[in-house]
Amino acid sequence: xxxxxxxxxxxxxxxxxxxxxxxxxxxxxxxxxxxxxxxxxxxxxxxxxxxxxxxxxxxxxxxxxxxxxxxxxxxxxxxxxxxxxxxxxxxxxxxxxxxxxxxxxxxxxxxxxxxxxxxxxxxxxxxxxxxxxxxxxxxxxxxxxxxxxxxxxxxxxxxxxxxxxxxxxxxxxxxxxxxxxxxxxxxxxxxxxxxxxxxxxxxxxxxxxxxxxxxxxxxxxxxxxxxxxxxxxxxxxxxxxxxxxxxxxxxxxxxxxxxxxxxxxxxxxxxxxxxxxxxxxxxxxxxxxxxxxxxxxxxxxxxxxxxxxxxx
Length: 312
Known about the structure:
Number of strands: 12
Helix content: 25-40%
């Protein structure tokens, strides 16, 4: 004799038809095939939690034509959650491992010996963190300083930056800052879990944002106009890219964040008393990682902007 009932999961309903010999364990296997929820993660409710032995006949605990609610995370979602949790744990372990260095994180400034980098309008020193792959971080700072578009901007606009610095990864709420209009520019180079480095173009985008603070402190229309100009010039002034095409397309001009997203980068220019817009001034090694979830609003919003820029 056929025995039927409906199981609903997250708004999706499915009718199940079984015979009187079907056990609860067999039903859970069918549920896995239909909804993708592993039997170990299934919670069945009908008035209360159905928590019988796996060999119990389903017909004896779920009446004919009744309705059952299934709660449980589907396998793909669960794997994603486990992956994110593993990432968080790795990041936390790295934070704890590297936090001990936070009181002495800055290397002796590396003075420029890069040809034209010794001119007046350039970056005059480089500082990286005492973390693994610090040479790679230093190479990235040098690459930014040697980027032809960046060099042209520094020269034509007569910008002089005392120190180009790597921002400590524990400073999760910002991607960079400009202190005292060029005394120090700091950029976050590493990924959230400290296992790798952010894309070069993304770091250069933030550098353009910070160079706009060489002139304007607040994120007003004057700042946004200059930021847009710099993002355009960093490509147009790079003679190494002129005429080149990648995959038949001209090099992309990176767009700055929208005005409403500008605060996701640094909150405003940094002066001796802190951020002009009222934010807290970052200090060397500041932060304990407790509020550094990858799901923070600032990180998610910036990643959304970064994703939009890649589509341009």
